[in-house]
Design goal:
With about 325 residues, this protein is an alpha/beta fold. The chain has 9 helices and 15 strands. The chain has helices spanning about 45-50, 130-135, 140-150, 180-195, 205-210, 225-230, 270-275, 290-300, 315-325; strands at about 5-10, 20-25, 35-40, 75-80, 95-100, 115-120, 120-125, 175, 195-200, 215-220, 235-240, 250-260, 280, 305-310, 330-335. The strands form 3 sheets. Strands 3, 4, 5, 6, 7, 14 and 15 form a 7-stranded mixed sheet that branches.
Length: about 325
């Protein structure tokens, strides 16, 4: 058995070109861990936040890193080896996971042929979908699920003093902004699955897909600002977030809620209070238990993973360049030979 593997690593912060495909030490599972032979890797915004040195975070939040490091969290693959104390998995099992997030902001080490995963963060891959689609699910789908359905943990909320609480969805009207992206296309489906009337906001080229995923109404933001068009909403899930999220406050009824998936920079707290609107966010966390719960929904097509594009692991820099262009439809996935 070789003690090296191929991986895509960072030796410095910067643009997509700092991602280097090279030999790296092959990890060995420690207590409570499973070694997974990776078949596909889903890429997510924290991957490029890490790559550029977390410039968007306040300096005191930026993790201390030592190079070289392997980015990435979302994997689908096959169990290669298990620690002696792991009982729930066997060699040969097909599995998927979001690895070490947010516990290790210095990278979950997923951009590689092999990765060690805590058994608590792992679940059997849905048999009805392939590795590419399974790798596209974990972070984005867990984000939508933890925001909209069930937090699934008791960890303190780093983004606000109070615990995030999902709101009832059945019979409610939910607007999803940035509806075609990774989290957005799952938020549309989860809200619909839970009985909401869903209004999807994206550019016009995504309308057919989003209606196919269950959106009841569609707003092309390139033609009309959604905040000028709708009123009396129960919930807005803003996948763009940031300072601009405050524009949605006037679309909500008193007692409604605004969930900015990216809450940093939000500047509408006083207006929200005066309108009787709750603003809440959470930090997605790894959960094998929730991935296990979600697997049947992925398996039978109740929730679909939309793939924007795929790239070989060796071309991770091209995948990051694609991400930088924006207007992603669903997920970008790396394939591992």
């Amino acid at each position: 058995m070789s003690d090296t593997m191929k991986a895509t690593r960072l030796h410095a912060f910067g643009g997509p070109d700092v991602l280097v495909y090279e030999d790296a030490p092959k990890p060995q599972p420690k207590e409570g861990e499973v070694l997974v032979r990776v078949h596909a890797v889903g890429i997510n915004p924290p991957d490029w936040y890490l790559r550029d040195g977390y410039n968007a975070l306040p300096p005191e939040w930026r993790p201390q890193v030592s190079f070289p490091l392997i980015p990435g969290t979302d994997i689908s693959g096959v169990v290669e080896a298990i620690a002696e104390d792991v009982e729930r998995f066997s060699v040969g099992d097909e599995v998927y996971s979001m690895v070490r997030f947010p516990g290790d902001l210095t990278g979950g080490k997923a951009y590689a042929e092999y990765v060690c995963v805590s058994a608590s963060e792992l679940a059997l891959k849905p048999a009805g979908i392939d590795h590419v689609h399974a790798a596209g699910a974990p972070m984005s789908l867990l984000t939508a699920w933890q925001f909209l359905v069930e937090l699934g943990h008791d960890e303190p909320n780093p983004l606000q003093p109070d615990r995030h609480r999902p709101v009832p969805l059945e019979g409610r009207t939910v607007l999803v902004n940035g509806a075609a992206g990774g989290v957005g296309h799952f938020a549309v489906q989860v809200a619909k699955l839970k009985g909401a009337r869903v209004i999807a906001v994206a550019s016009g080229k995504h309308e057919a897909l989003l209606r196919d995923l269950g959106a009841d109404e569609f707003i092309d933001y390139t033609k009309t600002a959604p905040e000028d068009l709708v009123r009396d909403l129960d919930l807005v899930v803003d996948n763009v977030g940031g300072a601009a999220a405050a524009r949605f406050l006037r679309t909500l009824k008193r007692g409604g809620a605004l969930f900015p998936v990216y809450p940093l920079g939000f500047a509408g707290a006083e207006e929200a209070a005066s309108r009787g609107v709750t603003v809440s966010a959470t930090q997605v966390r790894s959960s094998g238990a929730q991935l296990l719960e979600l697997a049947p929904l992925l398996n039978d097509g109740s929730i679909r993973v939309v793939i924007d594009s795929t790239y070989p692991l060796a071309d991770a820099s091209k995948a990051h360049a694609r991400a930088g262009q924006g207007h992603i439809q669903g997920k970008i996935v790396l394939t591992v030979e």
